Amino acid sequence: MLLLDPALQRIQRCDAWLCVTLNRALRYAAILHFFRAVSWLGNGIFWYALMLALLLQNGSAAAQPVLHMVFVGAVCTAAYRMLKRGTVRPRPYQTLDKVAAGAVPLDSFSFPSGHTLHAVAFTFVACAYYPALAAPLVSFTALTAASRVILGLHYPSDVLAGAGIGALVAGMSLGI
User: Is 1 helix (H, G, I), strand (E, B) or coil?
Assistant: First the structure.
């Protein structure tokens, strides 16, 4: 364990440095408003709209993909809540003096990023059924992940963990 401590400290320093560096972008109003909008859409609105659009466009053929997304979303929510309660990691704006909160968080704790977790999981599942959606969904997912750090709500490691968990849940549901 003693050998890991310097490595963990280095990771924590890098996490903090990235938070501070990326959060500086909020001094530009356009960037603040853009990433607030992305984050707001990532609250679920974008994904619910996607599911509705799939159903409207494809009718009953979209029922299985949409139900698959709903199932994965429920599993991700359960995992996310359990981890948040277990880790109780404060958010960057709460612990780093140079990080400002660019948006109001949905809950109290930082680890893992639920926005990123769900975005990655939904993207994997939607793209498995509709590969043509990959470019816009992957782009939106990347912006959602970036928004969480830029807005001072998550550390990069929270976002990476969320992405990993989302990919794991989606992958398992797809039999990958």
Answer: coil
Dump pLDDT digits (tens) for 65-82: 999 999 999 999 999 899
Reference 166, options 105, 91, 112; nearest CA is 112
- DSSP annotation string for 59-108: GGGGHHHHHHHHHHHHHHHHHHHHHHHHH-PPPHHHH-TT----S--SSS
100-134 confidence digits (pLDDT tens): 999 988 888 899 999 999 999 999 999 999 999 99
pLDDT 10s digits, 36-59: 999 999 999 999 999 999 999 999
From the list 84, 78, 86, 144, the residue with the least C-alpha distance to 108 is 84
Closest CA to 74 of 122, 6, 26, 141: 122
